[in-house]
Design brief:
mainly alpha
Length: 217
């Protein structure tokens, strides 16, 4: 099984694009948290309750920049503007900065490594194939390329942004009520403790299947 460092080295040529796409996807995940938070603040305004401290400061800063009086209507419009920016304005940008590069990078890397693999295979001496089955060698190379190709979108497009989203949820909960935030972290580690053994079993089974496929070739 390839390690995380092996995967990083595999995509070394595309590190700048990877950082851009992963960073953008993570930022979009965090920005999505602003929608339920802004809705909660709108409900506070409609029910006559005060805004949270940092939200109040944000609305006051917008009022100062626009030279507008600080009213209930202005607070509602500001919060609705935040929801609009997070949901509508970022929609045309998100697929190009996120999903597009999550597939462009692994497919381009696969093309490059396929070319390098073919060059390497063609330079091997004929005696090498007397001792090693050509079909088995080709199958091993193909599986290695496929594993790296399909692993990248899962890690860069799903795992890392979702982890950043969890960190954002923890930060929001900490600002609202730190006890709830601690309970959230505790529940996360409990779920992780029950999940990791199953993931280890799946990994072991996958290695057994790979060895079986290689032996049957």
């Amino acid at each position: 099984m390839a390690t995380l460092w092996d995967i990083c080295q595999y995509y070394r040529r595309y590190w700048p694009l990877s950082l851009l796409s992963v960073g953008a996807s993570s930022l979009f995940e965090v920005l999505d948290l602003a929608v339920p938070y802004a809705i909660g603040q709108i409900l506070n305004v409609l029910s006559g309750q005060s805004l949270d401290q940092w939200t109040q400061g944000f609305v006051e800063a917008i009022a100062s920049l626009t030279d507008t009086a600080m009213t209930t209507q202005f607070s509602l419009l500001t919060l609705l503007g935040v929801i609009f920016l997070v949901t509508v304005a970022k929609a045309p940008v998100q697929p190009w900065l996120g999903d597009w590069f999550h597939w462009l990078i692994p497919l381009a890397a696969r093309r490059d490594h396929q070319q390098l693999s073919v060059k390497k295979v063609l330079t091997l001496p004929l005696e090498f194939y007397d001792e090693n089955n050509p079909g088995r060698v080709a199958g091993r190379v193909a599986r290695g390329l496929a594993n790296h190709t399909w692993t990248y979108p899962e890690i860069a497009g799903q795992l890392i942004p979702k982890v950043i989203r969890l960190v954002g949820i923890f930060a929001v909960l900490w600002m609202i009520q730190w006890r709830i935030a601690l309970l959230f972290v505790l529940s996360f580690f409990v779920i992780l403790a029950f999940t990791l053994p199953t993931l280890k079993q799946l990994t072991d089974l996958e290695e057994i299947v790979d060895r079986y496929q290689e032996n049957t070739e």
